[in-house]
């Protein structure tokens, strides 16, 4: 029999078949079927940095509405940076998938800022992901910006 084993992201895989980030990855049953069909690993759907930011901004807004109306209201809630917020559902999903299948599970982050995604990369790792795919997204819109400047970003 032909040896199809390969290495991907430092993971030793039995073959190069790695279904990637797509809507199919949003259901554990789909991932189980991929494993049964011979997939060597899977890349989960992406967690977008904008989701993290939007959830944070929304919570911050609702926690602070009317805070200036009474002096004592300023201390009702702790500083937003001092406790964990964000799309915890993604982290829980990573845990569920890892419990359901034996193949390597690769998390996926889609970042837009320089380093704003690092905290969630660590959380995804702690949730059990075997590796992490990072997609950087930047839409250059400044006409005076050179291609070299865009690439250096």
Describe the structure.
It is a single chain. The chain is globular, with a radius of gyration of 20 Å. By secondary structure, the chain is α/β, with parallel strands linked by helices. It has a single domain (about 5-50, about 85-150), classed as Aldolase class I (TIM Barrel), CATH 3.20.20.70. Strand 1 and strand 2 (about 10-15) form a beta hairpin. The chain has five helices and six strands, in the order ββαββααβαβα. The protein has helices at about 30-35, 50-65, 90-100, 120-125, 145-150, and strands at about 5-10, 10-15, 40-45, 45-50, 105-110, 130-135. The strands form two sheets. Strands 3, 4, 5 and 6 form a four-stranded parallel sheet that branches.
């Amino acid at each position: 029999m032909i040896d199809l084993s390969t290495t991907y992201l430092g993971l030793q895989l039995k073959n190069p078949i790695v279904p990637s980030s797509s809507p199919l990855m949003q259901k554990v049953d789909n991932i189980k079927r991929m494993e049964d069909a011979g997939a060597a690993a899977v890349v989960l759907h992406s967690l977008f940095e904008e989701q993290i930011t939007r959830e944070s901004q929304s919570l911050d807004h609702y926690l602070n509405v009317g805070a200036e109306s009474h002096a004592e209201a300023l201390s009702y809630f702790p500083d937003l940076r001092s406790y964990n917020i964000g799309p915890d559902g993604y982290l829980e999903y990573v845990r569920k998938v890892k419990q359901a299948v034996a193949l390597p599970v690769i998390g996926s982050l889609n970042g837009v800022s320089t380093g704003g995604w690092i905290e969630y990369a660590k959380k995804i790792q702690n949730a059990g992901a075997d590796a992490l795919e990072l997609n950087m997204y930047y839409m250059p819109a400044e006409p005076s910006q050179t291609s070299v400047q865009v690439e250096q970003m």
